[in-house]
């Protein structure tokens, strides 16, 4: 067998470091495609001039594009036989990615727990994206439920990692040189500063995008994510292609520009749930809730902790129903930190 | 309210200058996408070598792509509450846009007229696209009908700008250095020179492209045009997404290569009407009529004034029916100047 | 008539050299789009760093993208009135194409044979892609059946070129500097070396991609291939758009990564048949057969001759039925040479 059957639960060993294949160099092409695929309008990512006025050398690749690129590399080793993508934690963006940079990815197995049914187990990995200078540009923990190949394989010792419920504000990394003291709010699109957002405040982002098969496949392929379920209409019994959860994340984040135009740089992913599957034809909408606020040491730079909820419709600000279960129209519930001018 | 409700008729003041948000840096990525989205084959825009042989430093971004980028920036301020896009005039391209350039946009309100029903009014703006060196790269007048928020708001003094029916040939700006004396007609694709086109001549461009939802959304997003009606299938009662008029312009212009391969650089937009809406599934075809011819001072460079008509089928060269109304199959009637080797 | 009616059979003269129009400069944009359109993961084409570790200056444009670009240029002169694309032979890639390169194309008529019905004939051309330094980057023979315009036109003398059944291994051109002695199999995605592939071995590539109208049109336009049948849903009586055969080639080649991750550089096209037409909605799958193996003089570099079969389903490894006819689920049968680390 020369093709990759993917790893099964019993193939993961605690502490093992997996080097993922197919490093990727990004260019203005990936940046242009990100703008074609999502209604992304963050000025810092759209304009080299704006980025320079904020102390960066040029406009970086969207932080979520960097995340998708790294995530995509992990799929053949981590989630080819995954039954479910269970969660994210401790995601941190540590350095911007610029055109010309090459990203590779590696994951360390940090937790294992066989399910009581003996047929599958949960694998926790800490994944790092690394650029051509060996700098870790982002890092996150993800856990997935993976099937066993051999039901008789011995269960590993249960190890559940101790994960922070949210990245502490003191651990947020502000890109070197970032300075929002000369920030141009007119060019950025909205006047709202860090101090204008109150914890508890909720924003309906109003706009919606109806998603198409061609679009989510272009996006998912762009990140070299090869999970069959996104591309092969014959794979699921219902003939539907499941949209990559990251496509919904990027769509919702881009939609959140309307009300959060100055929420420029994503610096941490505290957690996230893909509450319900998303399919072609869905009109994705989004709302946000301000969860927390923090200062940073960088000039003019504050941080907001936000909940970003993507929906397929339904009333804005509705999230969970009886028993704490996500309502059927909720696609995504994401918890992240973002840098905002003060 | 942190989201942008858009401006209503009573929010515009004569003489006001509106700085539009989200400057944009273009790269080879936008150029490649333009070629993927439209059957564009103009040699000057396809090949750096060909552009250099015509005296330019490299292949510019398609002139219409530059127009779309600037237009897109104006949408949140000008046409979010527009009922109709009424017309264009006095459009002039003043300098080519190259990969690496950053475009911003500003609009001056040059006309206002409340409608007799008191519910809406017409707003005329002169929009300028500006590059990172502060050079105006293109300029055009556009007028739209905009709803009033408050029907009791006082009507402004009526001011209707005096607009030229067409940009005079003497006002056309030929890009610095452009020289068609060594123009390679074989590489460009057709032998027809400026002098081969006679005013009154009409050309059926023969080819057709059936448009898809994913394509027009990719294009419209690429220009950061966020009008809901292009993206959200739940927005219109009929569940259809209206295709951005500029997508039809670019499609028709690209189709016109077949017969106008040497109509290289768009230098003026004299006027234009989106005669009927366009939806996914339409097969767009195009025909042209030569309206005028002019010489320029640049070596080997002539100008043609052309009518470009996009249709959803129907007989070529049919345009208007009884009462001067556009026929149902006419999508676009555009009047522009283009530079052609002599 | 200013539009291009295409050439008919009687318009081709033996020995004639046709210079094709519209040279094209490629950038990171084309590279990014190739990754969005196909599940391409060859490390050498994905990462500048990986390419440098193999002795190249940076990651080249995918070899098939270079082929499509050259092929696209020939369409208006060779296949606008073609009834059928009959075959390929003697295809050789002679130098990699890098971002910044400009490609032009020319074809020499090397064979002519009028059909016995007197209504059409077969034209053989040798096409060369040439970069901005005048270097031939690829060369192939293709033959098509073309209609006659004038059934009374005299038949040309029949000349059938003598074509090699396969490019001899000794004629394969290894890119200058290519060195696989330090090849990183982990980063490339699979451990299988040249010596691990045995002639006769067959590999089912397992994955499948369901193709969409928007995708194949984006791809085909990107290569400036303008054949109506790919874009205009009103062109065929059944309202279907025929997918460009090259789209199927690239899709199948990208799918073949799973099992052939180290089959990095395509250096020869021995032959190929588009066995059945492909339409939107088809789920493309692929399998390969190892046909031959050869050594090269370059350090660590071996060559494999492979059959690549694209299907719309059906049993893997089934190809032809009674009478040697391709089975209905076979889309493509391609025979090529590829460079692999030893």
TrEMBL record, chains A, B, C:
<protein>
    <submittedName>
        <fullName>L-erythro-3-methylmalyl-CoA dehydratase</fullName>
    </submittedName>
</protein>
<dbReference type="InterPro" id="IPR016790">
    <property type="entry name" value="Thiol_ester_hydratase_Rv0216"/>
</dbReference>
<dbReference type="Pfam" id="PF19315">
    <property type="entry name" value="MC_hydratase"/>
</dbReference>
<dbReference type="InterPro" id="IPR048274">
    <property type="entry name" value="MC_hydratase"/>
</dbReference>
<dbReference type="GO" id="GO:0016829">
    <property type="term" value="F:lyase activity"/>
</dbReference>
<dbReference type="InterPro" id="IPR029069">
    <property type="entry name" value="HotDog_dom_sf"/>
</dbReference>
<dbReference type="InterPro" id="IPR052342">
    <property type="entry name" value="MCH/BMMD"/>
</dbReference>
């Amino acid at each position: 067998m020369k093709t990759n059957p993917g790893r099964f639960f019993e193939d993961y060993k605690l502490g093992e470091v997996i080097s993922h294949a197919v490093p990727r160099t990004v260019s203005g092409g990936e940046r242009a495609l990100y703008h074609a695929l999502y209604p992304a309008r963050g000025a810092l990512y759209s304009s080299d001039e704006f980025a320079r006025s904020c102390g960066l050398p040029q406009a970086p690749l969207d932080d979520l594009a960097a995340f998708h690129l790294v995530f995509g590399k992990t799929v053949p080793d981590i989630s080819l036989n995954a039954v479910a993508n269970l969660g994210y934690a401790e995601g941190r963006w540590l350095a911007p990615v610029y055109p010309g940079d090459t990203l590779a990815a590696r994951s360390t197995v940090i937790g294992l727990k066989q399910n009581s049914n003996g047929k599958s187990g949960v694998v926790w990995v800490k994944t790092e994206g690394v650029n051509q200078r060996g700098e870790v540009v982002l890092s996150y923990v993800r856990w997935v439920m993976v099937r066993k190949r051999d039901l008789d394989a011995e269960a590993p010792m249960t190890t559940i990692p101790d994960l922070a419920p949210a990245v502490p504000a003191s651990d947020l990394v502000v890109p070197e040189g970032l300075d929002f003291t000369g920030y141009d709010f007119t060019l950025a699109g909205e006047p709202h500063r860090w101090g204008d957002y109150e914890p508890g405040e909720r924003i309906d982002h109003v706009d919606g995008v109806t998603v198409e098969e061609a679009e989510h496949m272009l996006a998912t392929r762009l990140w070299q994510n090869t999970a069959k379920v996104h591309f092969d209409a014959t794979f699921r019994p219902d003939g539907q292609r499941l949209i990559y959860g990251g496509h919904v994340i990027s769509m919702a984040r881009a939609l959140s520009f309307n009300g959060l135009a100055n929420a420029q740089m994503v610096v941490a992913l505290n957690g996230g749930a893909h509450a319900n599957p998303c399919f072609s034809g869905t009109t994705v909408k989004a709302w946000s809730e301000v969860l927390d606020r923090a200062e940073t040491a960088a000039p003019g730079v504050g941080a907001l902790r936000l909940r970003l909820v993507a929906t397929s419709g339904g009333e804005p600000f509705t999230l969970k129903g009886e028993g704490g279960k996500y309502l059927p129209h909720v696609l995504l519930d994401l918890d992240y930190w973002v840098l905002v001018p003060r």
